[in-house]
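Hey, can you fold this?
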Amino acid sequence: MTPADIVQNGPARIVSFSRDSLARNFTLGQDGADIDFRLRTPISGPNGTAVNLRTRTSSLAPRKTHVVVTYEQGVESLYIDRHRYPANVDLRKADILISFGTPKHTLSKFAYAFCYFFPVSFFLSLFLSQRLKNSMAALLIPGAVAIGLLTFAELHQAYSFGRSLDWALLTYGSVVAVIGVLSGARVAVVNPRVSPSSGGAERPILNSR
């Protein structure tokens, strides 16, 4: 390829296979005098932006340039004029929340847990609290289900990408699951569901004059 100039940004697309600006399979683009490569994976997200391969050395000039990008076993590599760019992207070691598309830090871990596991514990606790006489079971079952799903998801991701378990994520997720259980039980107490065995809906109290 021969860049028309080295001031384009966006990145400006050199070659791309994308549905739109928010969902891509891959994009090889130009951002100023640098190359930006984005690839859709479970780690980098549906838009390939959570982790991307980008040069930082003003590698482009308005002359013919031979660019090769490879992706093999989770590793993205870049070659410019037959020389391998020193940095690569190893998605197996990327500290990213899979399917969430954000780097791992305390806030994003809580957000991940609230998005996926809070609804499970909350609605299951609400449902069981309205239908079970055993209040302890109504608390323990939703908590066990949510924490079990969280643990299974983390084990699967750790095994799939060859990394160790994120114990902080498991801790944050368990706390969020407990919050969901208690919140669901609280809502059930405030808004109790009338059982069919009680004879239907409660009769309204008529005000007498």
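Oh, and this one too while you're at it.
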Amino acid sequence: MAQPDPYFLGYRQAEQQRLQQQAQQLAEEADWLFDQIGIPPGAHTLEIGCGPLGCLALLAQRVGPHGMVVGVERNEDSVQLARQYIAEHHLPQVEVRLGDGKATGLPRESFDLAFARLVLVNIPEPERVVDEMMALVRPGGVVALHEADWSAHLLYPPLPAGPRLFQLLEAYSQLNGIDLFVGRRVPSLLRAAGLIDVQVRPLIHVYPPGHGRRLIYCQFLENLRERLLAVGLVTEVELTQLMADLKRHLDDPDTLVVSNLFFQVWGRKPG
């Protein structure tokens, strides 16, 4: 049996590039969420699983030169890329630390906001991250997440290979203790951690031809190719054919591509 993997999609260079692009693609949604929370100048903020960029720059704009942004990321290459971005864009209020989002080692009750985006859907034991975020915010502070639920992804016309491809992804996630449907659980995870005034915003998108996220499942499968083969879930011949069928279907401009369901969820620590 596979050992629990720290991050579902791995850390290939292509994944680092995808995450950097994702930071730009999802910036508008992050700005909307930060508007709802209300992050004042001078605030102390934290991003768990920031990757090579995440929302570090957006948070830096909000807190200003007298605030603080701390990113925690477990992958060394991602940390170095994030630090390079910070240096190049002259963001002295931002610090990125190598660490585990489940046990950051940061001072308890020292942040006004703890935020994570598309982290829980990629790791085992997501409730431990929520508990850590809860412990890190001050009384009255906010914990906020942007998470995915794979239930809604749709291709139309349907791809005959689609059920088999999704079965592979779901089987691999289950082997590694990862819940691809965690998005629907996030409100209850926040309440179980003790947060109050929990708010929920659902999101779903269409990815037309040329959209930067239209081929995202091709990217996911390429990231996971070696892992899927290593645990014997599929043969190389079958996987190559499945991926070619998917790419051909997505390249057809008449194929409707609908995203997963996403949830932005935030709540306040009592006090």
